[in-house]
Design a protein that fits this description.
Structural class: alpha+beta
Number of domains: 1
Number of strands: 5
Distance between the termini: 17 Å
Order of helices and strands: EHEEHHEHE
Strand content: 25-35%
Shape: globular
Largest sheet: 5 strands, mixed
Number of helices: 4
Helix content: 25-40%
Length: 125
């Protein structure tokens, strides 16, 4: 069985509400959170692919949705929001390799957003 992977396009802002983020992007989030005791809003759009899909498949799928919204992403950045890709990957205990092909890296670079890789050991013990 393949290890689970999850990828999310994330926006964090203490100036914009989740509704304002949705309007600027023209998208509905998968989930929203508000940090307790602060003004921080966390807006997330998760990949709809199965967790067994590879990180590059998750990224390509979400890029298909986010790239047409590049102007909205720039508006969020201009408004001081933190915008990034969050990739959770589980890996074998003896090493973790995440391979991203040049065309995918070019697409990611085109939006100029950080990619955060959160790699965990897949050993259940």
């Amino acid at each position: 069985m393949a290890s689970p992977n999850r990828l999310t396009f994330m926006v964090r802002s203490d100036l914009l509400t989740a509704d304002e983020i949705s309007v600027r992007l023209g998208l509905k989030p998968t989930s929203v959170q508000r940090a307790r005791g602060s003004r921080l809003h966390i807006w997330e759009l998760a990949s709809p692919l199965a967790e067994e899909a590879s990180p590059d498949d998750h990224l390509n799928g979400l890029l298909d949705v986010i790239e047409p919204k590049a102007a909205g992403v720039r508006k969020l950045l201009d408004a001081g929001a933190e915008v990034f890709w969050s990739c959770f990957v589980t890996a074998a205990p003896l090493g973790a390799i995440v391979e991203l092909e040049p065309p995918l890296l070019s697409r990611l670079a085109g939006l100029g957003l950080p990619l955060v890789l959160d790699i965990y050991d897949s050993d259940p013990g």
